[in-house]
Design a protein that fits this description.
The protein is built from 16 helices and 19 strands. By secondary structure, it is an alpha/beta fold. It folds into 2 domains: 212 residues, Rossmann fold (3-Layer(aba) Sandwich); 188 residues, Glycogen Phosphorylase B (Rossmann fold). A hairpin with a 4-residue loop joins β3 and β4. The protein is globular.
């Protein structure tokens, strides 16, 4: 089919999401390039395109990457908007009429919804069902074995029994997410892999650019470039378990088991920062650096100086920071409770995997990754090769397969 024919037969896709999200913006721009898909993003709030207080980081955040460029978008009129995320933070009006279409403007052929726990998401799903518009759902959910019992679990099962009849397919972000949908919706419910990915080209380019300025950052942080660097970059919240990493690091370096011991560089801010800084001060170790919140475009400079990156989180739905640092060709150590682990990190291959909360196992993982300079280098090259296969093109392919199946208006490729 030629380009003009594709444009004439465009399928109209509405994407309903709470607010502009920095990770999603480049993907939406890429989807908008598809000639036979006319994408319109419907936002419930615009709070993220202005400076706002992020509770997780504990600081005011203003993203330094464009959030709404390169794709069609609208901000839905608000009944209320608390200008933050949360199940009841926003409620919009006009979703039904927008999906149905108005005079001179035809309605949508399919609704893609991000998440299922907000008022707006549920409103959109119900509106589409009433209009006969197929619904595709994408969410970060994973199975939590601790919650697979009791009245909360039974309530959740009842909810998904209803939801199953309101949607036409799920867009899975990875293996753990796919298992969640199979458990709650059944093995026969349509799934289409649309992996959680980042703009690989952007991060690889920024990481290459960072090499020529490496000396500036080493000087800024007062680091000896001949020593290894362990990097943490995330919110300093309890569930991110940076305290576990700090404990493991102190266990590693107090005996100086691996010669000239590595630095620990902590990028991020949040509720635990003061306690972590106090712990470092009490230890007397002078090789830990706290760098505070850094914006997305700054992170590749820190990836560049890292020998190994660590994300020790508990209950981490995915962990897109792992995708980002893999694009720098760096070894990655993650807990087994990080959602991306089954798809991106195999123990001893792209990095190391340890049981969440097990400080001794984390210490051992650090020791293994840093035992020889070539060990982390080899893991990092494998990480780069792995992440090159987990990209936006697979996202577009997955979305196309789903839209083709539920609308029969475009081909899957």
């Amino acid at each position: 089919m030629d380009e003009e024919s594709k444009k004439r037969k465009r399928v109209r896709v509405a994407y309903l999401v709470s607010h502009p999200i920095q990770y999603q913006a480049p993907l939406l721009g890429r989807i908008a390039q598809e000639l036979d898909i006319e994408l319109t993003v419907l936002f419930a709030s615009d709070f993220s395109i202005q400076p706002y207080a992020d509770k997780g980081f504990g600081v005011d955040v203003e993203w330094d990457v464009p959030l709404v460029g390169g794709y069609q978008h609208e901000f839905l009129p608000a009944i209320w908007d608390e200008r933050r995320t949360g199940p009841t933070s926003q409620l919009s009006h006009g979703i039904f009429s927008r999906l149905r279409g108005r005079e001179g403007v035809r309605g949508f052929d399919v609704l893609w919804v991000h998440g299922y726990s907000t008022l707006n998401a549920l409103q959109g799903i119900l509106a589409a069902k009433l209009l006969g518009i197929p619904v595709l759902l994408r969410a970060e959910s994973r199975l939590d074995k601790k919650q697979m019992r009791g009245w909360k679990h039974e309530t959740k099962r009842l909810f998904f029994d209803v939801l199953r009849h309101l949607i036409d397919g799920v867009l899975t972000i990875g293996s753990a997410n796919a298992a969640h949908w199979r458990y709650y919706l059944g093995d026969d419910f349509p799934q289409y892999l649309m992996p959680y990915a980042v703009d690989n080209d952007y991060f690889q380019r920024r990481c290459r650019d960072a090499v020529v300025r490496r000396g500036e950052l080493l000087s800024e942080l007062d680091l000896d470039g001949s020593r290894s660097v362990i990097l943490f970059a995330s919110k300093l919240q309890t569930r991110k378990r940076c305290a576990d990493l700090l404990d493991a690091y102190l266990d590693l370096v107090v005996g100086d088991e691996i010669g000239s011991h590595p630095y620990l560089v902590i990028v991020g801010d949040g509720e635990e920062r003061v306690a972590l800084e106090t712990r470092v001060k009490q230890s007397g170790v002078e090789s830990v650096r706290f760098c505070g919140f850094r914006n997305q475009s700054e992170l590749p400079r820190f990836f560049d100086i890292a020998t190994v990156f660590v994300l020790p989180s508990r209950n981490e739905p995915w962990g897109l920071i792992v995708n980002e640092v893999m694009n720098a060709g760096r070894a990655v150590i993650v807990s087994d409770d990080v959602g991306c682990q089954p798809d991106l990190i195999s123990d001893g291959v792209e990095g190391c995997v340890f049981p969440v909360g097990d400080v001794a196992a984390l210490t051992d993982a650090l020791r293994r990754a840093l035992a020889e300079p070539s060990t982390a280098d080899t893991m990092g090259q494998r990480a780069l090769a792995r992440i090159k296969t987990w990209d936006f093109e697979k996202d577009v392919q997955g979305l196309r397969r789903a839209v083709a199946q539920v609308t029969r208006k475009i081909t899957a490729s």
